[in-house]
Fold each of these.
Amino acid sequence: MPSHPIRRARQRGAILLILVATLGLGASALLIHSFSNGRAAAIRERATAASLAAAKEALLGYAIANGRLPRPAASATDGHEMSGPCGGAGCSGYLPWVTLGVAGADSWGKLLRYSVSPAFTRAPVSPASAVADRKVLSRDAGGAPLFLVGQQDCDINSRCAPAVIFSSGKNNLGTSVQGLALANAGVGNADEQQNDGATSEFFLRKPESNPAAPGGEFDDILVWIPLQLLYRKMEAGADRPKFDGAGAMSK
């Protein structure tokens, strides 16, 4: 006996509803997955920014207590400040996280990088002679480099930043907490490569995933210590009473 037309129509309608529901569930799952990944990425970025802010405050605190900024870490696996003076490329390396008592890595398991002007690693730091020589650049609307901090030549009259701290970001380059140098998976990411090997000039830009953009893709996160802020903190620290290990005020 042939099927009733109404029954066949109901069956087709039920199948269509099942298909629509299945497709809807698949789309929802993709949206949830995408949202979860985006949220996780944002959380990691905020956590890394917080670690950099904490490192900056710790560096200022160190300068207040010691009359100078610390030198970079002894190595990728030793977070103590390196012994002896640093100069040139030796003043660029890793944040001395053990000496400062802060986290030494970002949210992607890469060591935080640190570069400091040599004159600011020797106490006492004299505003009359110490030259801050770390520069921070970005790019203008046409892609040309421009200075955010400092200028081409840093000297006693045109000083730049005393120090910078940065994370290599999620993608490309950096050094793992195990001390292993990570490969560059980017193409044409000139500004990230500049940061990775820089000793005085560093880039800070908005995140960019387009490899064809000026400077290439970019996800480094960088902060710097402003010169006048450092001097204000150190001057305030010099006016505070000092105590010896027994709690007695020193002269």
Note: Confidence is low (pLDDT under 50) at residues 27-35, 243-251.
Amino acid sequence: MSVVGSRARATSPGGTSRRHTNPPRGRTDTSGLLFVAPAVLLVGIFALYPLAISLFMSFMDWDGLTGVREFIGVANYQWAFTDDAALTSLRNFALFALITIPLQMAIGVAIAIGLRGSRSVGRVVRAAYFMPVVLAPVMVGMVFSQLMEASNGPINTALRAIGLGGIAPNWLGDPSIGLVSVALVNVWMWTGFSMAIYQAGLDSVPEEVIEAARVDGASGFALVRHMFLPLLRPSHFSLIILGTISSLKGFDLVYVLTRGGPADSSHLPTTYMLKVGFELFEQGRASAVAVLIFVIAMLITAVQLRVYRRRGER
């Protein structure tokens, strides 16, 4: 059989010949652009456009009620870095993250490892721990505002009943523990999410690897320390990133439980932004806080991903 020319033809199963041709030079296939256009449009409308408006308004002095706007440059950002309440909200974000993230991760991984291999009972327990995740934060806040009520709340009533009324705190009205109380509620609500992430990570660990470790003498705490925890490193970093961003943009629980009080002691950046914009009627300053929240979130995510990649290359 001879080959005519230098072009080879692809023969289909039916015996017909197919010739693969490229689009004419100078023409571009736009079908891919049409597929991604709806997603790009949605991102532009609901993400990029509001961000651009917030950035523009952060350079303005505007009360949000009148049409009078005055360009004042970076004065709103200077205020954000000197205002005591604004700085307190940033410190509260760091404290909130330091309380909630380690507790949620520690309890979540303990539950996931403890229930590993358990079938019927494990499913019921996991479902019970995960249930708070699907609840509305506003509803959770309303329930805990009643539970933590200082005078007649069930928690303090129980403490008084067992003779510990002297240490029954004003959970939500004491400036020194108001934010801590909100953080504990957040831990109760989101620990089930950490458990689910760790459970997924454990399910991806081959059973043969675990059996090999047991044959080598690893058991109990040694198995957890030297096998499970290192293999769950991607889950650790995912939860740290998600927990940090969640703490930065946290709003619901703080607003329902304390509204940032007393005396602005439990404000997070988002709740303080709401107060500045819609109670003090300083839309320019509120926009500056919003832009700072976005910038901080991006920086935190970039740093954490960089650390994760470096450790992964080792």
Note: Residues 84-114 form the longest helix (31 residues).
Amino acid sequence: MLKITEIFYSLQGESTRAGKPCVFVRLAGCNLKCKWCDTNYATDTEKANELSIIEIIDKVKTYDCNFVEITGGEPLCQTECIELTDRLLDLGYELAIETNGSLSIEKLRKDVIKIIDFKCPASGMSGYNMYENINYLTVKDELKFVVASKSDFDWSVDIINKYKLYDKVDNILFSAVASEISYSELADLILSFSNRVAKKVFRMQLQFHKIIWDDAIGR
């Protein structure tokens, strides 16, 4: 059984697949308390529905969509999440999982698209980043940094260079905490970055779902 906040069909709002139709399976619960969290409602496990893996898959099958993303909260807080990913892959789904990077991704199969949200200092959670996860990345996986300031961006660049993340994945994503830094400022930081080797994989992203739908929660 897994604790589920919601299962829904929408457009992917982030990552390199932004704009692509997607079935989202949002697991309940999280082990972090990020300052900028925009899905606090997903941390409440008491209000979550308990569903079996078969029930989850049956719900996913009701949508005519082959792309599924497992998210949270933090989905890897529930150990049964690994079995869910295995079952979905065996059924032929294109599968992504978004994780905060504080828990091991070692048991996830290589064909799962792993989107790791490295926590920057302003989030208050940067001390929880599990850098061992870098060992399990493939080029198709994606790394995300949500930045609130130039110092967050500079910290991100230091991490990228320290671990040579530009050699690990094809896409490193930057998001702006909209209440703290403007999109144009973040864009200028990316464009002015001098390391051409690293910058070739840099990509700025917006949260399309929050632009399209007025009732979406903003950062």
Note: The CA atoms of residues 114 and 141 lie 5 Å apart.
Amino acid sequence: MHPHSNSGKTSCDRCGSCCLQGGPALHGGDLHLIRSGSLAIGDLVTIRKGELAYQPMADRPSQVDAEFLKIGGKPGSWACRFYDEPGRACTIYGNRPLACGLFDCTAPEAVLGITGRDLLTRFSCAEHDDPLVQIAREHEEQYPCPDLDGIVSQLQDGGQRKNVLARLTPLVNDELTFRCQVAKQRQLSIGEELFWFGRPLFQLLQPLGIQVQETVSGLHLS
């Protein structure tokens, strides 16, 4: 959830800002929602260690210290997929995650108290004998999230920019090939792919100002 103005508010007026700006992180108390089927893995996105993400009430994204799951967004947006914007209502209100029940922009102490604690991950939710668990671990070992803050610093140095992009280009393409092959072999939906592998590396680089172009030889970074 991103920050939003609560100037003059004394209680929730169902403005929807918190829902439009991103779905919540999931905590241990939400595991039953997955086990019961109230939340499917295709509804969830893995945010991997090192990615840039907004913490509750923060005014800018920062690198996360540990992996966590969050509810995915709508197509082309981080707006919570379960938010009914015309009706200004949650479509899973009776089974909403813990953070949603605690969040109050006029009194953020409760949700801040659980931020970063008892977070669910893809590995804590999946069955241990699921073959995709080992595949996801292999993906994480081969293609961990790069040091995004470090990349930003290097890109600001004109002398390093070309070398940085040259180093990242094969990594981005190899990672995309890995996930696409697994998705095809295992017949994963896009949502399931985002659960098991998180967002593609090229998407993590785009907020840093790196442009991604698709060419006949693969993705090109500039």
Note: The chain is about 40% helix and 10% strand.
